[in-house]
Design a protein that fits this description.
72% helix; mainly alpha; 4 domains; two-stranded antiparallel sheet; LMBR1 integral membrane family protein; LMBR1-like_membr_prot; transmembrane; 549 residues; transmembrane helix; 6 strands
């Protein structure tokens, strides 16, 4: 394992903390800008733990020697006992999901207008958290009690003296295994060995092994996490490049000061015209009410006044919308960082390349192995194994980049799609309009997808990470757990992910531009500010009137 990689992975969490703090500032509502430190720290810690867990994956692979070519039985390839490190990371994730995050959410949910004492809120949050822990513990106990073994599929071969041969040292021995489709090299194997290979008998068998409690607990949370991961990852791998590229395309355009003043003058002219139209309608209504006309003429005048009033209201509404649109365009450009669209364009191009490579890896390696039993090509695995022979540091860094990119896709899917139940968005993430409880809740969703993401990465880069400990935990034990192994044997989760990838392609190809949505949000914000300003003005006038009395 390269110590440069270790130093890099130590420094990386610092950047992760900075990014998580930026996410807090971007998503959290202005009402929660000051205070609420427990929720903010919980969210930052969740994101940091999630990213660090993914960073351990290439470290585990590098610790194992990079691939199966490190050599069977060479203990020098493994310098760090990563199994215990993974157990510690998984235990921390379970602790956060079951205790810390529920307590934080319940603590802020107990806040109301009356602002009860903090002791009462702490007591209420502790009681709700205790109930959550009891429910989770009961479900975990039932799951771990029913599922104790892993049934691993294997092939048994009949080893006899006829098919066992001594190597040059006359001590080591090997036996020849018959495998369909293999053409044996006659220059290496003797006639007797070829006949022995043809005579080897094999039978499919199942090897049952006891699984530790911690692995069974990991399996429970991993299966629950897969329910969210397949949705968020399927949407995010398409949605992240889309958002970045369209973030550049729909960037706020510059409005010169002369044009802004010209548009304001046009709106002023329309206002004067509407004032004159309003006075005309008022005279018309007064004439219809008090004029010396017959009832038939008055009825006609009232009808015309009513139609003119409806037209006047529509014109006022259109004027209000145009004025708010003008202010919103000016405000959006004023608040926009001019370098941000360029950064989105660069990151968008890179994300398109990364998403295409990931989709090719899924199409050529992951899905064929799971559905047909064999890959079309190792694809990225071949690149990593080749780099590992000459530049192991670069291979580990690229593996980290691909794993983290897929995690960012998953986070994007979680924040974009959210937890939608019956067409309702629960704990949605909106820029500058997210509740503190929603922020903490979505931090928990990110933690939930860490375990299935690690399992998925171990599948995607199975050749390169063949000797890693994470393969032994997920690929050997969890995937073969009794009663739940059918979920992985029949590729239930991968089929669902494939469906959401196809759905995301259609959805984003038909989706309307985010520019209109952002404009509506800015206009809504301006309306609320105007309404608040009018209320403050009325309160000031009432206060001044009372002082004069």
């Amino acid at each position: 394992m390269d110590f440069t990689l270790l130093i890099l992975l130590i420094l990386f969490p610092i950047f992760t903390i900075l990014i998580a703090c930026r996410l807090v500032g971007y998503y959290l509502s202005d009402d929660f800008a000051h205070g609420y430190y427990m929720g903010k720290i919980a969210f930052v810690f969740c994101i940091t733990v999630a990213v660090c867990a993914i960073c351990f994956f290439p470290l585990d692979v590098a610790n194992a020697g990079g691939s199966a070519t490190c050599g069977i039985g060479i203990e020098s390839c493994k310098k760090i006992p990563f199994t215990y490190i993974w157990y510690g990371v998984f235990a921390l994730i379970v602790l956060l999901l079951c205790v810390v995050l529920p307590f934080t959410v319940f603590f802020y949910e107990t806040m109301d207008i009356d602002q009860p004492p903090i002791e009462k809120r702490m007591q209420s949050a502790c009681s709700y958290t205790l109930g959550t822990v009891v429910v989770v513990a009961a479900l975990s106990f039932i799951f771990c009690f029913l599922i104790r073994k892993a049934d691993i599929d294997m092939v048994s071969y009949n080893i006899t003296a006829a098919n066992t041969f001594a190597i040059a040292d006359d001590v080591s021995q090997f036996f020849i295994v018959e495998e369909p489709g293999i053409v044996y090299n006659k220059s290496i194997l003797s006639v007797d060995e070829l006949e022995a290979a043809d005579a080897v008998s094999s039978v499919a068998d199942v090897f049952s092994v006891d699984v530790s409690f911690i692995v069974r607990l990991i399996a429970l949370f991993c299966i629950l996490g897969w329910l969210f991961f397949v949705i968020f990852a399927g949407i995010g791998v398409i949605g992240l490049p889309y958002k970045l590229i369209y973030g550049f395309i729909n960037r706020p355009t510059y409005m010169p000061k002369e044009r802004f003043n010209e548009e304001k003058q046009k709106i002023g002219v329309r206002i004067q015209a509407l004032i004159a139209q309003g006075e005309s309608i008022t005279k018309m209504m007064d004439g219809a009410k008090n004029g010396n006309y017959g009832w038939k003429e008055k009825r006609r005048m009232k009808k015309e006044a009513k139609a003119a009033t409806a037209e006047y209201r529509a014109a006022c509404k259109a004027l209000d919308e145009d004025y708010l649109t003008l202010r919103a365009e000016h405000l959006n450009y004023k608040e926009n960082n001019p370098l941000l669209p360029v950064a989105k364009l660069v990151l968008g191009i890179l994300s398109i390349v990364a998403s295409i490579l990931w989709l090719l890896q899924l199409a050529l390696y992951v899905f064929p192995i799971q559905f047909t039993g064999g890959a079309i090509t190792p694809f990225l695995n071949s690149m990593f194994i080749g780099l590992n022979d000459y530049l192991p540091m670069l291979a580990s860094v690229l593996l980290l980049v691909f794993a983290l990119y897929f995690m960012f896709c998953t986070i994007n899917g979680a924040f974009s799609f959210g937890l939608r139940m019956f067409l309702m968005n629960v704990h949605e993430m909106e820029p500058h309009d997210t509740l503190i409880t929603s922020l903490v809740f979505n931090g928990g969703l990110v933690l939930m997808v860490v375990l299935p993401l690690l399992q998925f990465c171990s599948k995607a880069f199975g050749d390169y990470a063949a000797r890693s400990e994470v393969i032994g935990i997920f690929g050997v034990q969890i995937e073969y757990l009794r009663y739940v192994s059918w979920l992985f044997k029949h590729n239930v989760f991968l089929w669902i992910m494939l469906a959401f990838i196809v759905f995301a392609c259609f959805y984003y190809s038909c989706r309307r531009s985010d520019k209109e949505r952002k404009m509506r949000k800015t206009m809504k914000k301006l309306k609320e500010e105007d309404k608040h300003g009018i209320e403050l003005k009325k309160m000031k006038e009432e206060r001044d009137a009372k002082e004069m009395v």
